[in-house]
Each structure stands twice: as C-alpha cells, then as structure tokens.
Amino acid sequence: MSKEPDRIFAQPMAQVPDFAFNEDVVRVFPDMIKRSVPGYPTIVENLGVLAAQFAQPHSVLYDLGASLGAVTQALRRHVRTDGCRVIAVDNSAAMVERCREYLNGQDSMFQELLPVEVIEADILALDFKPASVVALNFTLQFIAPEQRLALLGRIRQALLPGGALILSEKLRFNDADEHALLTDLHVAFKRANGYSELEIAQKRSAIENVMKPDSLEEHRERLLAAGFSKVVPWFQCLNFASLIALP
Ligand SMILES: C[S@@+](CC[C@H](N)C(=O)[O-])C[C@H]1O[C@@H](n2cnc3c(N)ncnc32)[C@H](O)[C@@H]1O
Ligand SMILES: O=C(O)C(=O)C[C@]1(C(=O)O)C=C[C@@H](O)C=C1
Fold it and tell me: Which InterPro entries would you find in this protein's record (predicted)?
C-alpha cells in the first residue's frame, strides 16, 4: 500500500471543493483513512474474522465501496469456506485501478486466496447475486440519504440464511452533549495523528455536503425496515461504529 502522506487540505484554499474519491485522494487514501477513522485497522482486520463466521459454501462475499480493497484483502486472509469468491465494487475509476494493482500484489505473495473480481460500478445499480457476506465499510454514509433504505432492502434480499451484512459508519448522536463530546474527541484524535487545525477545518467543510452520517438509532430502525431481523453493534471507537445485521 502507498505510504504517501495525506496533505490534501494542508494549504489554505480560497474555496474548499466537495470531497471526491479522485486521483489525489487515491494516492494518499491508506494514510488518510488510518489517521481519520479511529479504530479503522481493528475494524478491517476483524471484519475478516467476522466474515469467516458467516461465509456460506459456494457463495459471494461483497465488498461495497471497496476503495483500495483493504476489506477484500482481510476477507481473503480469513475466509476459508469452500467455493467462496469476493466481488469488490467501487464507482471511482481511480480507486478501482489501484485496487486491482494491490490485489494482484496480494495474489503474488500468497497462495490459495479466494478468487476476486473488482467491478467499477454504482452499488445502487448493482444486480446482487446470492451472497453470504456483504461489507459496507464506511460507504453507506456517502449514499444519498433517500437511497439508503432501498439499497439495504436489496442487500437483505440477496443475503443467504446464515449470512450477514457488516456495516461500518461515522455516527452522529441525537443527544447534543454526546455529539459535541465525541466530535471534539474525534478532532483530538486527528490532531494527535498530525493533522493541523486548518487541515481539520478544510476537510470538515469538504465532506459536509457529500457525507451525511446517521445515528445508531436511525441505522437500527432502517435496517429493521429493510427486513433485517437483528442488529448487533460489535465495535465503537469515538464517533465511528460497526454493526452486524442478520437476515
Ligand atoms: C470511505 S471509502 C470506503 C473505504 C473502504 N471500504 C475501506 O474499508 O478501506 C468510500 C468508498 O465508496 C465509494 N462509493 C461511494 N459511493 C458509491 C457508489 N454509489 N457506488 C460504488 N462505490 C461508491 C467511493 O468511491 C469510495 O471509494
Ligand atoms: O470524518 C472525517 O473527518 C473523515 O475523514 C471520515 C472519512 C470516512 O469516514 O470515510 C471521510 C473521508 C475519507 O474517506 C476518510 C475518512
């Protein structure tokens, strides 16, 4: 993975453009996500461990909004179930191109990995195959809020008995004090990871129009409305969490 440091928001910008998963972001993405999302390495590695418990023989494992394929690589490190294959999907051409390179690297270093296909597509237009594991790792928050329920409904329909959706998201909190505290602590996390006040402020304004976090309660209610039977949070670090949703 690229070691290039994220300096995207380091210089003052006259007008901060909306955040996009373009070539510039792709180049620094491993550094950006690790320094921005508390618990990210733990979530990614354990997503593989969890997936191994839900993977059903001869089924598909989806990594939706795969970016550079960190989750796909974790699935391939941990899932040993017969006949499984991974489908990684992203609608950023720059991400998909680099993701394929990284997965080729993984193929050349390890044997007997699950087969993987990387597709450049909009997950809202995807024709889902029967799947035992679906990972949405910090992707749903970039989908327009009015499209989220329909997408989760289609994922639920595709899920096989014994499978699971694993959903990781930045959270907002209905209690104003809780929201303020965890937001401040997230800023402290970013500062401790070397981001300046300017970088933190410019990134905040870049993502505010394109990334709309929900509360844990909203996630739970929407997942149940989409037909999931049980929602179990398995990880939270500050204002970032990951949930297991069972069909
Ligand atoms: C925060 S990143 C996901 C990080 C990644 N899952 C990981 O764990 O490293 C969100 C990704 O979702 C992708 N994305 C956003 N909307 C999408 C859509 N409608 N269809 C497919 N991919 C989408 C973006 O291009 C971006 O790569
Ligand atoms: O909240 C932030 O500041 C973030 O940077 C979050 C977040 C995310 O959750 O996906 C936003 C964009 C980048 O992909 C990396 C991290």
Answer: CmoA, Methyltransf_25, SAM-dependent_MTases_sf
Q: What is the tens place of the pLDDT at every residue in 196-232? A: 999 999 999 999 999 999 999 999 999 999 999 999 9
218 CB neighbour count, 10 Å cutoff: 16
71, two tokens: 């989750």
Ligand with smallest separation from the Cα of 140: 1
DSSP state of 112: S
What is the DSSP code (8-state) at residue 37? S
CA dist 7 and 133 (Å) reads 35
Could you tell me the distance, in angstroms and rounded to a whole number, from the CA of residue 56 to the centre of ligand 2?
A: 31
With beta carbons less than 8 A apart as the criterion, state whether 60 and 85 touch.
yes
Q: What is the value of pTM for the model shown?
A: 0.98
| Among the listed residues 64, 79, 47, the one whose alpha carbon sits nearest the alpha carbon of residue 235 | 47
State the ipTM, two decimals.
0.97
Q: Which helix (H) or strand (E) holds 230?
A: strand 230-237
Task: Please say whether the structural domain 40-172+211-246 has been given the CATH code 3.40.50.150.
Answer: yes
Residue with the smallest CA separation from ligand 1 atom 18 is: 122
Q: Please give the structure tokens belonging to residue 13.
A: 């910008």
Q: Binding-site residues for S-adenosyl-L-methionine, please? A: 40, 65-67, 90-91, 122-123, 137, 204
Residues 6+ apart with CB under 8 A from 12: 198, 202
For residue 71 and ligand 1, the question of a CB distance below 6 A is answered with yes
